Amino acid sequence: MTSSAARTLVRQRVLALQSVPHGSVAAGELTQYGFTPADVLDFSVNTNPLGPAPNVTQAIQGADWTRYPGDDEAPLRHALAQHAGVAPEQVALGNGSVELMWLIALALLEPADRVAIVGPTFGEYARAALVVGGDGVEVQSLAEVPAAARLVFVCNPNNPTGAYHGRAEIEQLLVEGPDRLVVLDEAYASFVEERWRSEQLLREHRNLIVLRSLTKDHALPGLRLGYALASPDLASAFEAVRPPWSVNAGALRAGLATLEPDALSHVQRATAVVSESRHMLMAGFSALGYSVHSSAANFVLVDVGDAPEFRRALLPHGIVVRDCTSFGLPSCVRIACGLPEQCTRLLEVVEWLKRQ
Questions:
Q1: Structural fold of domain 9-50+263-355
Q2: d(Cα 325, Cα 111) in Å, to the nearest integer?
Q3: What is the pLDDT of residue 3?
């Protein structure tokens, strides 16, 4: 299709959309160094450093791929509701939490609705709002959220800064604008040491939507599985606009397995490992003279001066970090909390590079 034809046939707002850069590294970029993605220490993807829980991978292998997966959605919805202490009607499933961001925008926003995004943060919030004609604006704090905002996206803990808002801050945002919808994205909340439980706020605030990712907790980002907790009316609206069978059979089986005792214990062990690695990274980079942002998440944000160059310098050593230029932070890199021995290797390489 020529560009002139596209201007005639495609909505102008869609033509203006730009893709959002994400973590990890392409195989082609590593070829020049003689690496494959399996060869490198990848600190650019924020998932469980222990890998998937064994019972979860076993559940995926036992999925029945010969039939449509719809019948398996209700059991997972009920199990998630029981785990969160809410009604099954308050749970909506999604092909990862990203799909739910798009479903929220599709179900709730009218063209020109104001959408506030507390940043710097994940770029898909803004793209979801733009697709349906929303008017997105990034603010730097909860206090700056405009009164006219119809919808607010808050990543908690925030990607990429690791900042974590307390219950009182979120509750104040909900109370100040009872007709304003607040989306609290808790994709990384499982790795927070002193976590507060947001589902308790759902009982009092019908304008709250909680997003969670099951694949971050279990290092299965390729599986795609997330869910939303909200009032029954809102959850029903998200399900109404979701494409049929968007959550596959393996993901549904895996979702049930993540709620089993073995998998829950697996995530608890990972949280302890993340805590050790986070303290190691923050102390190590500080000792090397870098400015490190305080983080409650399973990653840390480090000001290295020139993020693209810092990332390039690490690649020949088989190490990948996340250049945060796309977040509007060209001097910073985001580093996932890997295993302690992996973090030690990263710090050794960075120290060696500083001496060159």
A1: Aspartate Aminotransferase, domain 1 (3.90.1150)
A2: 29
A3: 66
